[in-house]
Structure formats: C-alpha cells, structure tokens
Design brief:
Blueprint (H helix, E strand, L loop, with lengths): L2 H8 L11 H27 L11 E6 L8 H14 L4 E5 L10 E4 L7 H4 L1 H9 L4 E4 L3 H12 L3 E5 L11 E7 L23 E5 L8 H10 L4 E14 L8 H6 L1 E6 L4 H11 L2 E7 L8 H14 L3 E5 H4 L12 E12 L1 H14 L4
Parallel strand pairs: 1-5, 1-6, 2-4, 2-5, 6-7, 7-8, 9-10, 9-11, 11-12
Antiparallel strand pairs: 3-4, 8-12
Length: 366
C-alpha cells in the first residue's frame, strides 16, 4: 500500500468528497465554529480594549500559534526558533501547556539536569528538552506565573510562547502564526479557533507547505490584503535522517531502502508524514494513523508488530515525536526507526530574522 493511501482516506473529509457523513458533520462543525470563532473574536477585543488585562514579563516574548485546531507545524517552528536563538547566544525559555501530561503542577526543567519523562511533562516539551539540553522549559496553564519563576531562576533573554496566539493573558513582543498551506484558513471539517481576520494581529505568518500544494501566490496575496505589514514566509520540512529507536544511532539509507516497513504516527497532520515517506520512496506497506498525542503502550506495539508481520514488513517507522513515547516496555520483537526533519524556509527567512532581531535589540513593544 502506498504511504499516502490511508492518510488521504482519513483526511478526505477536508475536501468534502465521497462520504455521506460529510454534510451533517460539516453542518455541526459549522455551528461550533461560528460560536467558537465568535467567542475568540470577542475575547480578543476585550484584551485589545483593556477590558481584560494582559501581563508583561521582564523579557522578550515571541508567540508561535495558529488559528485552527490541529497540526499546522507549530512544534517544528518552535524547535527551529529555539535552535537559532541559542546559536545566536541568547538564553532561551519555552512556555507551553504540555498537552495530556500527567503532572498537573507547574514544572520547570532543563533536559541536561532532569530525569522527567514524556508522560510527566508532555511529548512536545520532552522532545524539545532532548533536542536542546540547555533549553529552559516551563510547563504550566499559567504561563505568566511560570515565566516569572523562570526569570527568578534563570533570567532568560527571550521566551518562546508555544501555542500562544490566543493566550492573551501574556503580552508578547512578536506574534508568529503558522498556517497549513493546504488549508490556510481551515477546512469545513476543521475546528477554527479564530476567524482569518485575526491574522491582522500577526507580525509574521509562516505558510507551512509540507505537501507541496503548488502556487501559493493567491494565498500570499490574500494574507497581504488582510495584513499588509506582516512578514509572510513559506516553510517546508527537510529530511535530515532516520535513526534506530533502540540506541538513537543513524541508519544508513541503503538499509532503510532495502526494508519493508510499516509506518505509524500519532500527530496532528499525518498526511505530512505520509508525504515525507512518499518522497523518500521507501517500501511502506501501510501507514497506521493514531490520534494526535496518542499514548503508545506495549499493546499498541504488539498490534503494530502483528500487523507488520501480516504485511511482510520487517521494521516499523514513525516520527521523532512519536518515537519518544516508546519507553518503559520491551521492544525487541521488531525494530522501530524514526524519521527526523527540520524546518526549511523556501522564502521569507531573512525578513523573519530581521523582525526578531529588531525586537531583541529595541526593547519591548507596547
């Protein structure tokens, strides 16, 4: 089976073709979206008019967010910004909620001196801590209180506010919004957090073109009409390697190309992973899709192994985000490989960094 077959089938509702459930589901979500986006707009206006008050941290804050629920590519962009800011010599902290984490109390840690696991803090914060051991990570519902404590302990130069476009409680110096180029303003069966008109409050809009949808000129023109002053960038994912989960060692591509694989993923946009596998021309028998942030356990592993054997596959392959969740149980029946990718800018990287450096050098913005 082609890598994209299952993910295309699952996501076909976005295009509205070929299923009797599309129209009733579209009507239900349409009503929910109306209420949700209405409240989102009202809530934003309350903060704009100072009816509700935002709080400011004594450090720069760069928000990375979106206007729809689901995977648009926020985490890879947070990873990219963290790496580049650290490389430029800044002390960086990330503020995040830590979706589906076990620890409900506020948690502040660095990967280099922490024995916390992904279940305790969430898969995305854990992955960031593994990528950048020196990165300060604060996991809390109250991002302001968490930021205050981080300042008292580490005095960072800059905070990256993960999923922060609607987190108005915390003031920010730069608003970066990530859009999926395949459905930039949300499809009919996507839950919208705010209307596209909210993009007029964005400083930078990153169109994440992981699927290669073709010309983005109409979308860019629409964004420029909404917000003439925003920097519009276009990003994609660049393949950087495949590793063995057992010891995190790189695997030669000749070995991967020779193997029959069963792919699986539990991310917001599984089609992007399917596209990566397709571009690599790997021999993928099937792509099994789980819900975003799925907590994998030994039962899942055994089911995947059994399915792989049914299809004649000799190894499993997944995303780096999913790979970190395979801990605490035996995985010797079949090897698990994971794919690593990096954000690559197709256009607009220099203007993005010009905007960031201006904020870093010129002080806080009112």
């Amino acid at each position: 089976m082609k890598p994209l077959q299952l993910t295309k089938r699952i996501l076909k509702y976005r295009s509205g073709y070929g299923d009797l459930l599309f129209y009733p589901l579209s009507s239900i979500l349409g009503g929910l979206n109306f209420l949700y986006t209405l409240w989102g707009g009202v809530r934003r206006s309350f903060y704009q008019k100072d009816i509700l008050k935002s709080k400011r941290l004594d450090a720069k804050v760069i928000s990375v967010g979106n206007i729809v629920a689901g995977g648009t590519g926020k985490t890879p962009l947070v990873t990219y910004l963290s790496e580049r800011l650290i490389r430029r010599g800044y002390t960086v902290a990330v503020l995040t909620r830590g979706y589906r984490r076990i620890l409900k109390d506020q948690t502040i840690f660095k990967g280099e001196d922490s024995d916390l696991n992904w279940q305790q803090v969430g898969d995305e914060p854990f992955l960031l801590s593994r990528r950048f051991p020196q990165l300060i990570i604060g996991v809390s519902k109250d991002r302001y209180r968490c930021g205050e404590e981080i300042i008292s302990k580490f005095n960072p130069d800059v905070f990256i506010l993960d999923d922060g476009f609607q987190h108005h409680q915390l003031n920010r110096d730069l608003n970066l919004v990530v859009l999926d180029s395949a459905s930039p303003f949300g499809g009919r069966l996507q839950l919208k957090r705010e209307c596209k008109t909210s993009l007029r409050f964005a400083d930078i809009v990153a169109l994440n073109d992981t699927l290669g949808v073709g010309s983005l000129d109409p979308t860019i023109s629409a964004l420029k009409k909404l917000n003439p002053n925003a920097v519009v960038s276009v990003t994609t994912y660049r393949f950087s390697g495949i590793r063995n989960l057992d010891d995190n060692s790189p695997i030669p591509m000749e070995k991967v190309n020779a193997a029959d694989l069963l792919a699986f993923s539990g991310i917001g946009n599984p089609l992007s992973f399917g596209t990566t596998l397709s571009r690599l021309e790997l021999k993928v028998k099937e792509h099994v899709v789980f819900r975003d942030h799925h907590r994998f356990d030994s039962k899942d592993y055994r089911r995947l192994v059994n399915r792989a054997r049914q299809l004649g596959a000799t190894a499993l392959i997944t995303t780096e985000k999913d790979a970190v969740k395979f801990s605490g149980f035996d995985k010797s029946e079949m090897p698990i490989y994971y794919v690593t990718v990096e954000v690559e800018f197709l256009q607009g990287e220099a203007p993005l960094w010009k905007a960031i450096e201006k904020v870093m050098k010129n002080g806080n913005r009112e």
